[in-house]
């Protein structure tokens, strides 16, 4: 074993947008001073601490700290209230509205059509719409594959448990990539897969994890909060998703697939400022090539040589010689 935590290198994030002194004409409204920060609003259906949303929140806070935007947000917004909140922000002059509309696709797209001068950037499983409704997604299947390799090397029982929120493409593709990575280095590994049908229910996720551990899993894939708590209590390893929680679970998190929203957010801000925002798919900005994803490993919890093997595969991903497949189908248990 090795000591310390090793972070694999990744390409730099997109550069920050330089402030301009000239007056520019926006595609979504009257001309405005380029130096003035954009008014950005975000709508979240869960607390900003929830891992997926926390990455959007972090990127928007960074943009505000740079002076590029003014930022306001609403959290814990019920699906039944989502359309109303979108309209309120649009009516109040938001230049860009960010959120996740997986449960309110039709209503959200209707709002965007009603406010053609407002830019919308929404987490969605579906395509862009109209002239001003862009979509993004957490395409971190590449780092998920890499951390899957680490898990495949580390398991001793060859049984890995996986607890997800909902069986939707955003979750499915990460699980499939993780499983493929594990299988690539350990063909004997098997998986137990379950979904709790909630984005934020740590107790339910924890109970699901306990059941898998009782069935022999010695590594847990923690797509939801609560899973790592179960792993820590039972003294086994866990794999993090979207954020790095190793500091909260010392000696438990062997590695994590991380999502970075800065590239996505900065591209949208630049487009709005330049008057060039349009309906497009921002998914590519979550790829490792753009700095949208990375992997962090703890060598102390992995067999010797694992980090080097994972790093070599990462190099192949970045130079284009290896492609991680995107599989949005619901993953199934192999046990």
From TrEMBL:
ABC transporter substrate-binding protein PnrA-like domain boundaries: 52-296
Signal sequence region: 1-34
Family annotation (CDD domains): PBP1_BmpA_Med_PnrA-like (cd06304)
Gene3D superfamilies assigned: 3.40.50.2300
Key words, A-Z: Signal
GO cellular component, one term: plasma membrane
Name this polypeptide is given: ABC transporter substrate-binding protein
Species, as recorded: Thalassospira tepidiphila MCCC 1A03514
Lineage of origin: Bacteria, Pseudomonadati, Pseudomonadota, Alphaproteobacteria, Rhodospirillales
């Amino acid at each position: 074993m090795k000591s310390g935590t090793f972070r694999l290198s990744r390409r730099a994030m997109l550069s920050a947008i330089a402030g301009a002194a000239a007056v520019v004409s926006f595609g979504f409204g009257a001309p405005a001073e380029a130096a003035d920060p954009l008014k950005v609003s975000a709508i979240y259906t869960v607390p900003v601490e929830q891992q997926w949303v926390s990455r959007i929140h972090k990127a928007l806070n960074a943009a505000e700290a740079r002076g590029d935007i003014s930022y306001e947000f609403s959290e814990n917004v019920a699906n039944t209230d989502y359309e109303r909140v979108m309209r309120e922000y649009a009516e109040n002059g938001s230049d860009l509205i960010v959120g996740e509309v997986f449960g309110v696709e039709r209503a959200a797209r209707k709002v965007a059509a009603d406010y053609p001068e407002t830019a919308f950037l929404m987490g969605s499983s579906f395509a862009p719409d109209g002239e001003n409704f862009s979509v993004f997604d957490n395409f971190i299947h590449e780092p998920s594959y890499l951390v899957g390799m680490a898990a495949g090397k580390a398991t001793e029982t060859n049984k890995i448990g996986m607890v997800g929120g909902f069986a939707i493409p955003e979750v499915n593709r990460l699980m499939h990539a993780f499983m493929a990575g594990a299988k690539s280095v350990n063909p004997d590994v098997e998986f137990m897969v379950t979904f709790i049908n909630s984005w934020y229910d740590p107790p339910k996720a924890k109970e699901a994890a306990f059941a898998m551990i009782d069935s022999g899993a010695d590594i847990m894939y923690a797509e939801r909060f609560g899973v790592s708590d179960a792993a820590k209590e039972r003294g086994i390893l866990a794999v993090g998703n979207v954020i790095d929680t190793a500091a909260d679970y010392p000696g438990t998190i062997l590695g994590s697939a991380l999502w970075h929203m800065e590239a996505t957010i900065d591209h949208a801000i630049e487009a709005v400022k330049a008057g060039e925002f349009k309906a497009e798919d921002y998914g590519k900005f979550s790829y490792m090539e753009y700095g949208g994803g990375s992997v962090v490993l703890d060598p102390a919890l992995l067999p010797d040589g694992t980090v080097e093997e994972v790093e070599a595969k990462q190099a192949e991903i970045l130079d284009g010689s290896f492609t991680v497949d995107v599989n949005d189908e619901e993953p199934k248990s192999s046990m």
